[in-house]
Design goal:
Elements lengths: L1 H21 L10 H12 L16 H32 L2
């Protein structure tokens, strides 16, 4: 029973991961909040000059996405660690 259940859970997880590759409608270009903000500023004030320029520009959008994912993973890991430590301390104090 447990093997069968594990198989179906893994199959469902793989189907969820693979679905975006096969579903139609993935032709739109992804734009984040930074891109939309820059476009809104350019539309509202065409001659606007930014106050400063970035120190480093990632070579591609994939690198930007990877760095964002790494930042999210590190933040989630740190948050989980802190919550786990506080929870364990609370249980140990009882």
């Amino acid at each position: 029973m447990l093997r069968s259940r594990s198989f179906w859970l893994v199959a469902a997880a793989l189907a969820i991961v693979a679905a975006p590759f096969f579903l139609p409608g993935g032709t739109s270009e992804f734009k984040g909040a930074d891109d939309r903000g820059a476009e809104a500023i350019a539309e509202a004030r065409p001659g606007y000059e930014p106050w400063f320029k970035p120190l480093w520009k990632p070579p591609s959008d994939e690198v930007t996405t990877g760095l964002f994912a790494l930042q999210a993973a590190l933040g989630g890991g740190l948050l989980g660690y802190v919550i786990g430590r506080r929870s364990a301390k609370h249980v140990a104090d009882r």
